[in-house]
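RECORD TYPE: inverse folding
INPUT: structure tokens
STRUCTURE:
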């Protein structure tokens, strides 16, 4: 293994309170397109056209067609070694917290016990009328938009641009980052706020930061280690060293 990753792996081993912040890049090797890479989800669409309350109010059907397409894609996807490596870390470190911007549910499917879902969950359908929220894992919803028994239409249970993040989740995420010795930043372009602000919060709270990304990001030059490559390969190297070494 390259010298840098060996040193970074030692930092992981020595750290007691580790927080991980993940983005769409951790699910890329599961076959789910990211948002801003060239094969990105949003290449054909503009975020403003789809992931906003205004777009949904204007044309709920087209927004739902995009989410339905993503749900069917995610339903066929499996967690990859990057997701599983974070489960191994969680089991080895009682002070571990996982924060994700992803709505695909792959961390939970890999076995992460309590991922903090900053941007919600694509499998949740929330009624725009009575507020009823339910989990629905049907990959291909037949009726778009889905209708609640109260007669109002349901929306995806995700956070759109211009919407606040779930307050309790955000508070727990900030608390975890403030108290961390080490923040792992995995597969995020660090462009969406307030999530990306957690990276700066970690740095100002004295935590070390290890970034794992296939490409350069706005934070690559500011972190302690910027490991370049696919998280599905790097995370296991970083975390699942030969089993002999206890983490
Ligand atoms: C809010 C959920 C206020 C739905 C999403 C101007 C400046 C700064 C901020 C703003 C601004 N104008 C507006 C804002 C605020 C705005 C924002 O940040 N805009 C950005 C674009 C400038 N933020 C908001 O609106 C937020 N809300 O501010 O509300 C408020 C407060 C109180 C009360 C009312 C209102 C809400 C933001 C949440 C939006 N929802 N998604 C859905 O998923 O459909 S955002 C969307 O982007 C996803 O959640 C995604 O996770 C997130 C971040 O993207 P990434 O995960 O980083 O994915 P990306 O494709 O960008 O990058 C992938 C990375 O992976 C790349 O770096 C790539 O190199 C790497 N990679 C690829 N393959 C691999 C890999 N790495 C490792 N291994 C690989 N194999
Ligand atoms: Zn309802």
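DESIGNED SEQUENCE:
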């Amino acid at each position: 293994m390259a010298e840098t990753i060996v040193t970074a792996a030692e930092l992981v081993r020595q750290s007691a309170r580790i927080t991980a912040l993940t983005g769409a890049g951790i699910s890329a090797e599961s076959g789910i397109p990211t948002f801003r890479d060239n094969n990105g989800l949003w290449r054909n669409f503009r975020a403003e056209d789809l992931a906003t309350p205004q777009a949904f109010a204007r044309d709920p059907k087209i927004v739902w067609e995009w989410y339905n397409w993503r749900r069917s894609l995610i339903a066929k996807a499996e967690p990859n070694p990057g997701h599983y490596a974070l489960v191994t870390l969680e089991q080895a470190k009682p002070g571990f917290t996982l924060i994700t911007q992803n709505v695909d549910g792959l961390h939970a499917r890999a076995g992460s016990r309590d991922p903090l879902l900053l941007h919600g969950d694509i499998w949740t359908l929330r009624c725009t009328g009575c507020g009823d929220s339910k989990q629905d894992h049907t990959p291909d919803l037949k009726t778009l938009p889905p209708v609640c028994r109260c007669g109002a239409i349901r929306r995806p249970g995700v956070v759109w641009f211009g919407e606040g993040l779930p307050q309790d989740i955000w508070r727990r995420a900030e608390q975890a980052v403030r108290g961390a010795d080490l923040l792992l930043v995995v597969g995020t372009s660090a462009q969406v706020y307030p999530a990306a602000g957690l990276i700066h919060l970690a740095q100002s709270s004295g935590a070390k930061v290890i970034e794992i990304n296939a490409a350069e990001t706005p934070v690559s030059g500011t972190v302690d280690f910027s490991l370049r490559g696919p998280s599905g390969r790097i995370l296991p190297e970083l975390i699942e060293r030969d089993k002999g070494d206890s983490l």
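NOTES: The mean pLDDT is 93.
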